[in-house]
Amino acid sequence: MSNVLSVSGLSKTYDSGFQALKNIDLEIEKGELFALLGPNGAGKTTLIGIICGIVNPTTGTVIVDGHDIISDYRAARSKIGLVPQELSTDAFETVWATVSFSRGLFGKKPDPAHLERVLRDLSLWEKRNSKIITLSGGMKRRVLIAKALSHEPEILFLDEPTAGVDVELRRDMWRLISSLRETGVTVILTTHYIEEAEEMADRVGVINHGEIVLVEEKKELMRKLGRKQLRLCLQHPLDAVPESLASYELELSADGSYLTYTYETAQNRKGITSLLHDLTEAGIRFSDIETRESTLEEIFVSLVHEAA
Questions:
Q1: CA atoms of 199 and 19, how far apart (whole Å)
Q2: What strands lie across the sheet with 203-208, from one edge to the other?
Q3: Which residues, 6+ apart, have CB-to-CB distance to 244 below 8 Å?
Q4: What domain count does the chain have?
């Protein structure tokens, strides 16, 4: 795939001296869903703000589908739709008016059919003539998404889009995103709901203290950094782990009825075979085996902790 977004050497230092971003390099492929993860204050929103032309960079370049965000601002910005964190809307405008106005800002000709599709997809059609001030917080969030899609962008930024919203909106939004991706729209997501990134993302980037810690395909990231646990239910409780099994670093449950073996998913599985053999040699019998694999959230927490 070709890159639709290229960020090179991007830094941002505010007048106070605070450096929000430090030499960011990032390539986003056309049509992918890229999840950008990081704790509060890591630089996610600043990075998105620069790409979308809201914040000025200190150094570096950003190219959006071949257009520089500084020298070719209008063309670059027309490619982008942004759903911000803040619920900032035209309170006394109707839903239809504000979405139509957003489309016009990008020089797009009126297209009532497109706007109707967007509003219907977001369950807003029945509210099209309502003033935004009368809508619930969830409905206002839907309006922000509709505004971002009004001019048919090729790249959609979602900055914490489901924070504090109801389950129905979350479901509607992900259904809409799936349909957008089928048409080739690139989606870049920041979220605290890491299970969403785990389910939807093609690649994951982790940012911390203004620096990109890691960018990796989700499946490869979980393969390389994920951990698995083997939990053995013992037929007879143990008081302690035998010395002969010390090399496995087994964890014995408080009541002595379970042993837990933790290993890297990328490691050779021969370790499990050896463990089971050595358990038998030590006279330890078990009645059941359970396995679990680390989630993307656990991997994210460990990466941020290492980078702190």
A1: 32
A2: 80-83, 155-159, 186-190, 33-37, 203-208, 211-217
A3: 278, 281, 282
A4: 2
Tokens of 198: 């785990």
Domain that holds residue 56: 3-222
Q: Name the β-bridge partners of 17.
A: none
- Write the pLDDT tens digit of every residue in 196-227: 777 778 898 888 889 998 888 877 776 666 66
Write out the two tokens for 224. 């390389």
Please tell me whether residue 21 adopts helix, strand or coil conformation: strand
Q: What is the DSSP string of 156-223?
A: EEEESTTTT--HHHHHHHHHHHHHHHHTT-EEEEE-S-HHHHHHH-SEEEEEETTEEEEEEEHHHHHH
| Nearest partner of 181 among 31, 12, 79, 28, judged by Cα | 31
Q: Which of 222, 257, 284 is the last residue of a domain?
A: 222
Q: What's the 3-state SS for 234-296?
A: ECCCCCCCCHHHHHHCCEECCCCCEEEEEEECCCCCHHHHHHHHHHHHCCCCEEEEEEEECCH
Q: What is the pTM of this model?
A: 0.72
Q: pLDDT value at position 157?
A: 93
Same domain? For 196 and 289 the reply is no
Q: Both 179 and 109 in a single domain?
A: yes
Decide: 162 and 169 in contact? Cβ < 8 Å: yes
121-138 pLDDT tens trace: 888 999 999 999 999 888
Whether 248 and 164 map to the same domain: the answer is no
Of the residues 222, 239, 269, the one at which a domain ends: 222
State the Cα–Cα distance between residues 52 and 82, nearest whole angstrom: 7
